[in-house]
Amino acid sequence: MKRAILVLLALGVIVTTSSAQNEKAQKSKAEPETTPLELEIVAKSTKYTLDTGGLSAADYRKKLEEAGSGDVAPPATPTVDLVITIKNTSDKPVTVWTKGDPIVLELMLKGEGTLNLTPPLAFTEEFRLPQGEEIAAGKTLEIPLKSLTSGFRGAARFSYWTEPGEHTLVAKFVTAVSP
């Protein structure tokens, strides 16, 4: 297996006070460039409701930052309706690691009023072996994304928006591919 890093440069996310359906996608860059995979995030919705639980934007941000210190468990991240697709751009089937400890999907939310936390968390010590899935030539594998929680074991990084506006979601997928 060869190590591959797929980075999605940007996907626009607009946070407003109401929901709306819109589809938008952005293609990725792979490292090394010869990797026969393409990462894409497809947004089934790009508009989401900001729910601060009745707090002002400043108080909501403060609450999230306190949770990021490790003394308090972080609250649930915003619910989203996204799909990560991994496309095999070669003319042969490839196997891609999609599960296990060496596989990391990392999300980073950017823009005015965003907050990305990596609080000190404890994880069990066992090593979870990677599991691969074969993707036929020219086909894609879809991974649904329902929240902005990512990182080690899908649970180490938390991304939030704390005020309405346009935000950008950047994704990085570290995996391995064979051949």
Characterization of the model:
It is built from one helix and 13 strands; from the N terminus they run E-E-E-E-H-E-E-E-E-E-E-E-E-E. The protein has one helix spanning 57-68, and strands spanning 2-16, 24-31, 37-43, 47-49, 79-88, 94-99, 104-110, 114-117, 131-135, 140-147, 149-150, 157-161, 165-178. By secondary structure, it is mainly β. Strands 1, 2, 3, 4, 5, 6, 7, 9, 10 and 13 form a ten-stranded mixed beta sheet that branches. Residues 8-25 have low confidence and may be disordered. The protein is globular.
Compact summary:
The chain has one helix at 57-68, and strands at 2-16, 24-31, 37-43, 47-49, 79-88, 94-99, 104-110, 114-117, 131-135, 140-147, 149-150, 157-161, 165-178. With 179 residues, it is mainly beta.
Average pLDDT rating: 82
Strand residue percentage: over 45%
Oligomer: single chain
Distance between the termini: 7 Å
Strand count? 13
Largest sheet report: 10 strands, mixed
- How many separate helices? 1
Uncertain parts: 8-25
